[in-house]
Amino acid sequence: MNYLVVGLGNIGEEYAATRHNMGFMVLDAWAQASNAVFTVGRYGATTEISFKGQKFFLLKPSTYMNLSGKAVHYWLQKTRIPQENLLVVVDDLAIPFGTLRLRKRGSAGGHNGLKSIDYSLASDDYARLRVGTGNGGFAEGHQVDFVLGELLLEEKRAMPELLERAIACIKCYGTEGIDRAMTQFNRSKPAAESQSSSPESSTKKEP
Fold first, then answer.
1. Using CA atoms, how far apart are residues 198 and 196, in angstroms rounded to an integer?
2. How far, in Å, CA of 82 to CA of 123, rounded?
3. pTM to 2 decimal places
4. CATH no. for residue 105?
5. Residues involved in catalysis
6. Is the residue at 145 inside a domain?
7. Counted domains in the chain
8. Per-residue pLDDT for the chain (207 aa), expressed as one digit of tens each?
């Protein structure tokens, strides 16, 4: 069975290590561990990974976050992968850093990448893996600087374990089913939790 796994993020070196690029980080880590190489194509960079008889088609959109839906729609059509086999990996500031939340469907929750995908697919009926970043103490509506800021030192130290857990969750989703993956990984303890309310920031793009 084939799956389309989409990691959300913004292209460009200035965004590479920011919280809003958690989706990119997960896919990059998986590709590196599997000796897979991304190829730049229309609307994004892609690669393929096979695991236990399942094929995972990885996509990192190059459209910037608020146009992610254009890339997802295009690659679903091109790969002929059904929407029920779509999994989107996304950052989530509503849950503590390091926490994983796999869901069968759901609202965008204010995330512009998910909003774009919902609009392009005319549906929110697709799986998503939310990777918690915490919110840094910022009030709702004033979190742009936080999500576009770089990880703190303790968060960077926790990233290898978090990325490994996220990859294991995606593999479980594809080989054992989403219910099993939700049971196993949604209860995972956070790798770390940010205590800072004044992280480094960038305001070049809206999240």
1. 6
2. 13
3. 0.85
4. 3.40.50.1470
5. 20
6. yes
7. 1
8. 899 999 999 888 888 888 889 999 999 999 999 999 999 999 999 999 999 999 999 999 999 889 999 999 999 999 999 999 999 999 988 889 999 999 999 888 778 999 999 999 999 999 999 998 887 656 565 566 666 777 778 888 999 999 999 999 999 999 999 999 999 999 745 444 433 333 333 333 344
